[in-house]
Amino acid sequence: MEVRAKSRFVKLSPQKARDLVSKMRGLHVSEAFKVVNFNNRKAARLIARTLKSAVANAVNNMHMNADSLFVKSAIVEEGPRFKRYWSRARGGVSPIRRRLCHINIVLTDGKENK
Questions:
Q1: Is 113 a member of any domain?
Q2: How many domains does the chain divide into?
């Protein structure tokens, strides 16, 4: 069985989260929590929150055992951008692009639902 959790419109550039998420794929949930808890980046806190939500969905909604869960896939997709402009000299402007991302985590217990 699979369980999903999504965090949408996270104020974080997708580039900053993708390297951390790639280290989590295929790991046991307890090992994935170690990866994010011992990393003191903003992305680690946001990914840990999504991972915690996925585990809670598995335990409460699907009645799965939290000790048997693995991270099947973890993807960080690009979200919309806030586009602003910064005034510059002689009437010019510089663009400001605030990037957002969507964090998707899929957990599985290793058993296939037939």
A1: no
A2: 1
